[in-house]
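Subgroup meeting minutes
Present: P.N., E.W., G.H.
Scribe: E.W.

1. P.N. recapped why we're keeping a running log of single-chain structure predictions: easier to compare across weeks, and new members can see raw inputs and outputs side by side.
2. G.H. added today's entry (279 aa).
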Amino acid sequence: MRVVRTVAALRRATASFRDKKESVALVPTMGALHAGHLALVRLAKRRCDRVVVSIFVNPAQFAPHEDLASYPRTWDADIAALSALGVDLVWAPGVEDMYPEGFGTRIEPQGAAKAGLEDAFRPHFFGGVATVVAKLLLQVGPDVAIFGEKDFQQLKVITAMARDLDIPTKIVGLPTVREKDGLALSSRNAYLSASERSQAPTLHRVLKDCAKRIVAGRPVVDALAVGRAQIEREGFVVDYFEARHADTLAPIISRKDGPIRLLVATKLGRTRLIDNIAV
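Output recorded in log:
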């Protein structure tokens, strides 16, 4: 497995794949890899001949009050895990490589990026994500890029961006990988205290209960109200708990409005947790 840190070295490496007519998959990450990331890598290996994993903690998607400085960084463990899986190439640029002096271009996505979910609480976020992912797709030139469904709104934003900008990469989503108790895997789970960790699976349990109520015919607004109350009783501070159209993320009020995705974002102590499921 090779690790490259400059765009020139990256392009020489990917050109060698292309010369052999090999397909390429990209798995973008910010490091601190867990079993969910490794599941993305395994899917990438099934889809393509060669796998590139990027590791870059993107400062453009963090607001000044957020956890950029403390975001977990586990380089040695990450490299060992990726090598064990047979990854071909790790793209690990520095901030100065991704955003060199004089960098002045930023993508401002619309559509799903303005759905009133994550964007309502982190208005800077999707501009930073779209800009860095566009750069990664153009730098690597993959046939396929793999993202997790845990960040469902992000997946929709990136899919639309690649389509709208005619970037010839197929964006593929992988269902959320969970702990045995249902907690969605996230690098930020490392911030949870022991007691918070025992509370955290409540999110998935409430999402499932809410989905069952909707399927059973209970009005969507009532099912959401019950679910929100359950979460708040457990000590979570709720940013949003919403039922949205699974394709457009537009608000819905009944099952007749289309396929439904339930999405939740909360704070538990100092840790922000998000999750979602299909109805």
